[in-house]
């Protein structure tokens, strides 16, 4: 998570939030994670020493290990490095998913200079954790060297095998963490106490990690078979150690067919993956917990709800603000009363004005973006010839089918059509490498090559996903507006909501229409695709559409015939008609 | 039950309620009176053909499966197709070809599995009742439109003023147990199936008689089957599903196709879900004599135990404060009063006011002497209770054997809950009631829909004035000055 440098003089909501809320939430999550680690470690000890025929001995052994000093000595470094890892990787978390338009862009993001310390830390953490935890397994795995006859010190390849596995797990966890959007703070469907959220997701996390681990072990065995010999010989050469003559080398098929080694690797892999995911799970649970902002903060300037709604520096604050707004509009009578109240003195509905303006601004921005994308999609289909004209600027005639060119050229078209209104098509592309012409050109050429095309070719659906990837904010805004309007029927004593009703309704129906159009324009085959991660971000647009529809229905259902008395535009009335008749 | 007026005589059919009394006509005038009372409502009679269950799903298989394979191969393919039950069945059927121990073992396992699946039937009598013409029935919350599931697992959708009745079929649509229309939507219908929830988007503008499978979303979660009950949040945001074999209730975000589980041990599963009308509470009944009431804001629950049987039906009052429920093998309707919810008031008291459920009506079987001297038995254990949207009428469906009549109560909520017997509804001679529900969008009172054993879907409009609507409401400040309805949406 990129956060701004704290400015002590002018305390913005951003800085205040980072100091007062984010920090304590991080501390809380790391604390609970560290409390979990010894428990996970003891389960790990139980599993790695398990003996089917002597279950009682296994448990007694585990208990004696737990109360020994060596356990403490090993757990302390594990706790330290894991604590550092979770704290440091909190910067990787984001609320807006990073969706690259090509596979190459995704890869590029992984190995960016900024990310290198993370890769290093993950692999270091994996290695140190494994190094510490091998002491629990037994002498066969626990140290780098062994001396079976008491004189000659020999290399223990089993130990190296496990430590290198730790390194491998660290890197692969980092990769899947980023590629599968594990680093996205997905807000829960329902607000529950943290413990219950944790309890209900632990089981799922464990099963997912079990599957992941087994998949990764497959690759690790393959890699070790090819490159393991090089690593061991390098270590042996540097430390001047000898190979053990009795042991079968592990980089052979016969050496890898070792069941007890496989069991240790599986248990170790689950231990590593599971403890990291638990850490990140707790972090996510803490950070996505609802935060109640003050609605009318007279004495605490810059900390009120509408400041949070307008906070663009730190998206998390904005998200929590909209979450709070949507929650209060649904569930809290008292706080709705504060929204509907008038200022004293003056009698102006400042709170409502600010909140509704912020919501409307969000909706209109998205509306414009979708409209622009729709124009682009319109022009994509029949305007092959015109895009060829544009392509000649790049002196590459044969690339007319290249989608990258289409994008740039059609952006021009859409901007012209809207008289250069201030919007950009890809708001989420700041993290992408800046598209400069030569690079585009290169991409264009490369995406035509068979293998490179796999990496450079545009991913299906990526553009729409980018368009809607941050639409959770708009979903909450739509919900909040419609719930507030619906509640105002009974609760708004001064009639302040009625004045803004026509504007809100027309912007809702416009957005709804544009979203509908957009869905019709993108190929139906792309509408749903396979679930790759826990959250499919391309489905956010479906959610937006569903929420828009039910929100319009909610307003109509509440106001009913009174809607006719509003000074609505005839265009809006026409668009509302199918909703009134329940034909939409 | 003694306070009920005597039921209609033989040959008479209840058609409506006017001036506080149920009116009957001779069964030969049923059609005409229905056309006058409910003009435009689809006349539906479920055909006995589609009522019949399709041939057992396993039987067709044996006709096509080559039998020269070894028994193990057959067992394996049976496992692919039908899971463990299939394997065991295959092994038991060919017990001569397998070792004795395995045959015995699979017989035992099969018995256990069959016993477990038979529980499913005992939990949902409507699933196993061969006499019931429909498996599930659901009114659309806003328009005159309803859907019902037939025994061949197809679903039909009828709309007022539209002769087109879409038939919904899907390969995963098996053992449909519940149907539920999404509130605040025109077209979304959730279907509880054996293995998954299907969410149909039945476009009202579409002319397709068989909506394709592109109109359907499949929601499934491992371990969460068979799904027996669905409940939409009244504000359309969430869908809850439950299975009697899973202790977790799944809370779905339908568009995002993800879910979170609400798990509480005890009770062995959740067999029935009912959202309160404003969405603050959910009743979750279990197959054991225990049920929970969830607070749908904080998602904590309170447990109600020490029941005499499992809770088999329940309904909420429109003001969200009273829960009526009935238990299996107990002919009494009980009520629990809750505090006001904090959604619309300042009060924070969500939990129940008392620790005891209060019996409000005794429905035990009694004999009534008719005018002509014959004796009729009425009452019995309750199968289902339904409260209409205004909170003025309560309909009670009795369990098999005593379901010839449907009892209707007049109810009032203020100052205390009061149930006054209104009358008994009778269908045509020999017809038995199998499903009752009120149409939520009916304006002139309440419209009770009964699915009779003959397959006839009967509409009984209960016409009464809603006093709260006539009296000016003090809460709607600023809106009383509105002009009467000028219909700008008319053309």
From TrEMBL, chain A:
Gene Ontology biological process terms, A to Z: mRNA transport; nuclear pore organization; protein transport
A GO CC term assigned to this protein in UniProt: nuclear membrane
Places the protein is found: Nucleus membrane; Nucleus, Nuclear pore complex
Keyword DNA repair among record annotations: no
Record keywords: Membrane, mRNA transport, Nuclear pore complex, Nucleus, Protein transport, Translocation, Transmembrane, Transmembrane helix, Transport
Annotated GO MF terms: protein-macromolecule adaptor activity
InterPro entries reported in the protein's UniProt record: Nucleoporin_prot_Ndc1/Nup
Positions of transmembrane segments: 30-53, 65-88, 119-138, 159-175, 222-241, 261-283
Signal peptide: none
Membrane topology: Multi-pass membrane protein
Family: Belongs to the NDC1 family.
Protein name, as recorded: Nucleoporin NDC1
Organism: Lottia gigantea
TrEMBL record, chain B:
Gene Ontology biological process terms, A to Z: nucleocytoplasmic transport
Superkingdom in the source lineage: Eukaryota
One Pfam family, short name: Beta-prop_Aladin
Organism listed in the record: Lottia gigantea (Giant owl limpet)
Example of a GO cellular component annotation carried by this entry: nuclear pore
UniProt protein name: Aladin seven-bladed propeller domain-containing protein
Gene3D superfamilies for this protein: YVTN repeat-like/Quinoprotein amine dehydrogenase
SUPFAM superfamilies linked: WD40 repeat-like (SSF50978)
Residues of the Aladin seven-bladed propeller domain: 130-463
């Amino acid at each position: 998570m990129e956060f701004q440098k704290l400015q002590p003089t002018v305390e913005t909501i951003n800085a205040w939030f980072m100091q007062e809320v984010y920090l304590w939430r991080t501390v809380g999550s790391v604390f609970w994670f560290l409390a979990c680690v010894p428990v996970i470690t003891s389960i790990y000890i139980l599993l790695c020493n398990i003996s089917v025929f002597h279950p009682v001995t296994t448990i007694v052994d585990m208990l004696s290990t737990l109360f020994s000093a060596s356990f403490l000595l090993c757990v302390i470094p594990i706790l330290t490095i894991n604590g550092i890892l979770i704290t440091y990787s909190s910067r990787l978390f984001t609320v807006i998913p990073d969706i690259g338009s090509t596979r190459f862009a995704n890869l590029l993001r992984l190995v960016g200079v900024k990310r290198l310390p993370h890769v290093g830390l993950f692999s270091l953490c994996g290695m140190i954790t494994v190094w510490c935890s091998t002491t629990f397994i037994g002498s066969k795995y626990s140290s780098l060297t062994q001396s079976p006859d008491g004189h000659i010190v020999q290399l223990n390849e089993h130990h190296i095998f496990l430590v290198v596995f730790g390194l491998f797990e660290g890197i692969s966890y980092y990769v899947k963490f980023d590629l599968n959007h594990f680093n996205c703070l997905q807000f829960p469907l329902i607000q529950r106490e943290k413990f219950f959220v944790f309890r209900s997701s632990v089981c799922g996390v464990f099963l997912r990690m079990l599957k992941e681990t087994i998949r990764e072990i497959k690759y690790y065995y393959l890699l070790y078979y090819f490159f393991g010999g090089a690593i061991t010989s390098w270590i042996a050469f540097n430390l001047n150690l000898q190979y053990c003559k009795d042991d079968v080398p592990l980089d052979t098929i016969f050496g890898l067919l070792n069941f007890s080694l496989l069991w240790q690797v599986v248990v170790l892999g689950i231990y590593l993956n599971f403890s990291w995911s638990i850490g990140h799970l707790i972090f996510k649970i803490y950070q996505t917990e609802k935060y109640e902002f003050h609605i009318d903060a007279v004495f605490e300037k810059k900390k009120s709800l509408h400041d949070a709604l307008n906070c663009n520096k730190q998206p998390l604050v904005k998200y929590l603000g909209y979450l709070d707004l949507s929650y209060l509009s649904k569930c809290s009578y008292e706080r709705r009363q504060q929204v509907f109240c008038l200022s004293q003195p003056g009698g102006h509905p400042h709170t409502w004005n600010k909140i509704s303006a912020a919501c409307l601004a969000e909706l209109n921005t998205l509306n414009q973006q979708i409209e622009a994308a729709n124009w682009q999609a319109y022009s994509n289909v029949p305007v092959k010839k015109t895009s060829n004209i544009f392509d000649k600027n790049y002196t590459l005639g044969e690339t007319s089918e290249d989608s990258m060119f289409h994008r740039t050229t059609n952006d021009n078209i859409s901007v012209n059509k809207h008289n250069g209104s201030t919007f950009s098509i890809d708001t989420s592309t700041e993290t992408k490498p800046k598209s400069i012409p030569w690079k585009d050109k290169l991409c264009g050429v490369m995406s035509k090559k068979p293998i490179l095309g796999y990496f450079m070719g545009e991913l299906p659906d990526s553009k729409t996903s980018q368009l809607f990837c941050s639409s959770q904010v708009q979903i909450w805004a739509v919900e909040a507006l419609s719930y507030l309007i619906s509640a105002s029927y009974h609760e708004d004593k001064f009639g302040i909501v009625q004045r803004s009703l026509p504007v809100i309704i027309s912007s809702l129906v416009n957005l709804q229409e544009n979203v509908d159009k957009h869905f019709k324009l993108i190929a139906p085959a792309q509408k749903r695709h396979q679930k790759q991660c826990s959250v499919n971000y391309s489905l956010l647009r479906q959610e937006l559409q569903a929420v828009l529809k039910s929100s319009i229905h909610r307003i109509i259902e509440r106001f009913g015939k009174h809607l006719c008395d509003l000074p609505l535009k005839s265009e809006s009335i026409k668009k509302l008609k199918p909703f009134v008749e329940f034909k939409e | 039950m003694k306070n009920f007026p005597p039921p209609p005589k033989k040959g008479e059919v209840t058609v409506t309620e006017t001036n506080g009394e149920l009116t009957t006509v001779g069964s030969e005038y049923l059609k005409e009176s229905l056309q006058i009372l409910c003009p435009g409502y689809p006349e539906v009679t479920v055909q006995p053909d589609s009522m019949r269950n399709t041939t057992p799903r396993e039987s067709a298989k044996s006709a096509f499966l080559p039998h020269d394979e070894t028994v193990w191969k057959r067992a394996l393919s049976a496992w692919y197709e039908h899971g463990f039950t299939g394997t065991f069945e295959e092994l038991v059927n060919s017990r001569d070809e397998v070792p004795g121990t395995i045959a015995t073992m699979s017989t035992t396992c099969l018995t256990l599995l069959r016993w477990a699946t038979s529980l499913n039937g005992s939990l949902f009598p409507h699933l196993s009742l061969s006499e019931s013409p429909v498996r599930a029935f659901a009114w659309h919350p806003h328009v005159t439109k309803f859907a019902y599931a037939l025994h061949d697992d197809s679903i039909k959708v009828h709309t007022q003023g539209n002769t087109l009745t879409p038939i919904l079929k899907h390969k995963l649509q098996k053992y449909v147990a519940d149907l539920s229309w999404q509130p605040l939507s025109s077209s979304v219908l959730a279907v509880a199936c054996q293995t998954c929830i299907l969410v149909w988007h039945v476009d009202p503008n579409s002319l397709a008689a068989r909506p394709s499978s592109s109109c359907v979303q499949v929601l499934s979660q491992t371990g969460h089957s068979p799904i027996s009950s669905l409940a939409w949040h009244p504000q359309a945001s969430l869908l809850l599903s439950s299975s009697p074999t899973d202790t977790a209730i799944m809370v779905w975000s339908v568009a995002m196709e993800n879910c979170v589980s609400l798990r509480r041990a005890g009770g062995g599963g959740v067999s029935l879900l009912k959202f309160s009308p404003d969405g603050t509470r959910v009743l979750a009944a279990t197959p054991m004599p225990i049920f929970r009431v969830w607070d749908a804001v904080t998602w904590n629950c309170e447990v109600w135990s020490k029941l005499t049987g499992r809770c088999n039906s329940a309904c909420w009052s429109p003001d969200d404060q009273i829960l009526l429920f009935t238990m299996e093998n107990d002919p009494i309707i009980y009520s629990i009063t809750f505090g006001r919810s904090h959604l619309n008031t300042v009060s924070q008291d969500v939990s129940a006011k008392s620790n005891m459920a209060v019996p409000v009506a005794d429905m035990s079987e009694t004999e009534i002497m008719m005018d002509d001297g014959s004796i009729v038995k009425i009452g019995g254990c309750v199968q289902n209770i339904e409260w209409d949207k205004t909170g003025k009428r309560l309909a009670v469906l009795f369990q098999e054997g005593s379901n010839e009549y449907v009892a209707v109560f007049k109810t009032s909520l203020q100052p205390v809950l009061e149930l006054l017997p209104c009358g008994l509804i009778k269908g045509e001679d020999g017809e038995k009631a199998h499903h009752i529900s009120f149409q939520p969008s009916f304006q002139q009172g309440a419209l009770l829909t009964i699915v009779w054993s003959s397959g006839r879907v009967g509409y009984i409009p209960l016409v009464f004035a809603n006093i709260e609507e006539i009296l000016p409401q003090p809460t709607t400040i600023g809106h009383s000055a509105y002009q009467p309805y000028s219909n700008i949406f008319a053309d």
